[in-house]
User: Which sequence fits this backbone?
């Protein structure tokens, strides 16, 4: 492992966490999106991660893709909504706010942990440079 692999590995974790937080925030922002019953509901987006060169010490993580929630959503009675059909029904997304908040916390913690690793590595490298100057 080279001296700067830690920055690349942690950087990949930071990038993944950022994309995860973006997806979760988009899901939360659209939790109350209402559509006609003839249309598909807003589909929640879930980030799929995969390891890169696992066990080699030179890997990291990357976004392998995205998975999407159900397009069926929930059909609910809301006759006052302008998008309601003749029976007063509208389609809402199948998104659980509690689950999304839990995912948001996990993504934030991953982001913070990787930032802490970068800061500690930077500090250690700066200290090593100072030792070299004092000799």
Assistant:
């Amino acid at each position: 492992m080279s001296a700067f692999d830690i920055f690349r590995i942690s950087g990949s974790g930071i990038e993944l966490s950022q994309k995860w937080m973006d997806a979760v925030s988009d899901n939360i922002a659209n939790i109350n999106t209402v559509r006609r019953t003839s249309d598909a509901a807003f589909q929640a987006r879930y980030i799929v991660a995969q390891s890169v060169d696992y066990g080699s010490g030179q890997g990291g993580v990357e976004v392998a893709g995205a998975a999407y929630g159900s397009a069926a959503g929930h059909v609910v009675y809301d006759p006052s909504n302008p998008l309601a059909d003749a029976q007063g029904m509208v389609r809402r997304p199948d998104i659980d706010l509690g689950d999304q908040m839990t995912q948001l916390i996990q993504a934030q913690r991953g982001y913070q942990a990787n930032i802490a690793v970068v800061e500690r590595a930077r500090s250690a490298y700066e200290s090593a440079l100072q030792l070299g100057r004092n000799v």
The longest strand covers residues 60-68. The chain has two helices and four strands. Residues 5-134 form one domain.
